[in-house]
Design a protein that fits this description.
The complex is a heterodimer of chains A (211) and B (244).
Chain A: H1 7-16, H2 24-36, H3 39-55, E1 57-58, E2 65-66, H4 72-75, E3 80-87, H5 90-99, E4 104-108, H6 126-135, E5 140-143, H7 149-164, E6 168-171, H8 187-195
Parallel strand pairs in A: 3-4, 3-5, 5-6
Antiparallel strand pairs in A: 1-2
Helix pairs in contact in A: 1-2
Chain B: E1 4-20, E2 24-31, E3 35-41, H1 50-54, E4 60-68, E5 72-79, H2 89-104, H3 112-126, H4 131-146, E6 167-171, E7 175-179, E8 188-190, H5 191-198, H6 205-223, H7 229-239
Parallel strand pairs in B: 3-5
Antiparallel strand pairs in B: 1-2, 1-4, 2-3, 4-5, 6-7, 6-8
Helix pairs in contact in B: 2-3, 2-4, 2-7, 3-4, 4-6, 5-6
The chains are: A alpha/beta (211), B alpha+beta (244).
């Protein structure tokens, strides 16, 4: 496929294909754009990549990506110390942050349990998490692993660990998404939604009553 | 040269999934009439794909696919009732079953008895029956389904039937031979436990334990040097407070 390209160009196109969603065609378009129209951008990109890949590591407390010893979520004084949310990826942390419904600390597993691939508690950094269960004063662990069989297995281990340390754990709710119509929801999700149904609090307002 | 194969609504289970290209997955299935097969599920990693919820390990499915050569493309998957929900310990046992199947079953060898004993074991696990017993029964039937008999019928040296009171030495791939009543060791079993295993009873703790010890030795022979990764992961899991 590298016919007609000079060696450096071929090398660049090849390298760009390590990005998710980028195949030969898009890699070629990116390379031509960077070289033809935006040399400054290309240099900035190269510098940023070099710097980030050399210096960004994991937060010592929560395994979030950061170039400091501790990430901003762990440093912040304004977060709820008693809440710890366990997620699978750094992207999950940002998704939860954007929801605005959570203000505690995080712990990032960088994956989920996958026994068939040899990914177990050790690979997920559960030793570090156990340490936090022991040392920090955590009152509740929020298990926000993905809603798959592997995610459930991961949550199960985490809940067991939390229990051992006398910490309450909760699993994020799953079921019908906002704006979802029952008719179009698959059976598995619907049955989970029914199993996990919750009591509805009804609070009648004086204003609408007849008296 | 290879013909196009089109299969409609074949009963099967998801054994293992791994990401493939950007939004697809390669999924290993155990099917009733086509054995273990690998199919590409295109776009199944996209969030909206309803398929994703269906294509989870341990759920019983109807599968349709098109295949030319080794790797096929999944065209349809729907849930085959009753739904099986594993949780906790059953989940981990399920991973073990799946790895065992992937390691020991040849690709594309139809084996309906193995399919049957797998679905039986999953339903035992989801009904929260004794995990250890369910796993031993599966291992026993699975080995039989693959054609690996244990040779628990008679003494290989004397040709006599097993007597419940005797003590026997078990050698994988050979069978059993009588020993002195004082014999002891990792490959010595009582006649009672051997009969209980052979007849798929395993109704007391003693015999389940003996069966585990025996089947582990047999499986080691067929699995070879490379240990099961589920086993080492589960050891780590249990070390962290989960009951084995």
């Amino acid at each position: 496929m590298s016919e007609g390209y000079s060696p450096l160009l071929a090398h660049l196109i090849q390298a760009l294909q390590c990005l998710p969603g980028v195949g030969a065609k898009s890699a070629q378009r990116m390379a031509f754009h960077l070289l033809n129209k935006d040399r400054d951008g290309a240099l900035r990109l190269a510098l940023a990549l070099e710097e980030a890949s050399a210096r960004v590591g994991h937060c010592e407390r929560c395994r979030m990506l950061t170039e400091e010893a501790h990430c901003i979520f762990c440093i912040s004084k304004r977060r709820d110390e008693g809440l710890l949310c366990v997620v699978e990826t750094p992207a999950d942390v940002l998704a939860i942050e954007q929801s605005g419904a959570y203000s505690g600390r995080y712990f990032v597993l960088m994956g989920h349990l996958s026994p068939l691939d040899g990914i177990g508690p050790k690979e997920l950094g559960l030793d570090l998490l156990e340490e936090r269960f022991r040392v920090d004063e955590i009152s509740e662990v929020v298990l926000a692993t993905s809603v798959t069989v592997e995610g459930d297995a991961t949550a199960h281990i985490l809940a067991t660990m939390a229990q051992k340390h006398g910490i309450r754990s909760s699993r994020i709710a799953y079921g019908i998404p906002m704006g979802g119509e029952l008719e179009f929801i698959d059976g598995g999700t619907l049955s989970r939604a029914l199993i996990g149904r919750r009591k509805m609090e009804v609070d009648f307002n004086e204003e609408f009553s007849n008296r | 040269m290879t013909d196009k194969e089109t299969v409609q609504l074949e009963p099967g289970f998801v054994l293992h999934q791994r990401p493939y290209r950007n939004t697809s997955q390669l999924i290993d299935f155990l099917t009733k009439n086509y054995g273990v097969i690998t199919l590409v599920a295109q776009g199944s990693r996209r969030l909206q794909a309803g398929q994703r919820a269906v294509l989870q390990p341990f759920s019983s499915l109807y599968l349709s696919w098109v295949r030319r050569g080794e790797l096929g493309r999944l065209t349809h998957a729907e849930v085959k009732p009753p739904t099986i929900v594993l949780s906790g310990e059953g989940l981990f046992a399920g991973f073990y079953l799946n790895e065992l199947l992937l390691r020991l079953m040849g690709r594309g060898d139809p084996n309906p008895p193995v399919y049957l004993c797998y679905s039986l074991c999953l339903s035992d696990l989801s009904n929260l029956l004794d995990t250890s017993r369910a796993l031993r029964l599966f291992e026993l039937r699975f080995l039989a389904g693959l054609g690996y008999g244990l040779g628990l019928e008679q003494d290989i040296e004397t040709g006599e039937l097993i007597c419940p009171g005797g003590r026997y030495r078990f050698k994988p791939e050979h069978g059993i031979s009588i020993e002195k009543a004082s014999a002891n060791g990792p490959d010595i079993f009582t006649g009672r436990d051997l009969i209980s295993l052979r007849e798929e009873r395993l109704d007391d703790e003693e015999s389940v334990k003996a069966a585990k010890r025996l089947l582990k030795r047999v499986l080691r022979v067929y699995l070879g040097e490379r240990p099961l990764s589920t086993r080492s992961v589960l050891k780590d899991v249990y070390r962290r407070g989960l009951e084995p």
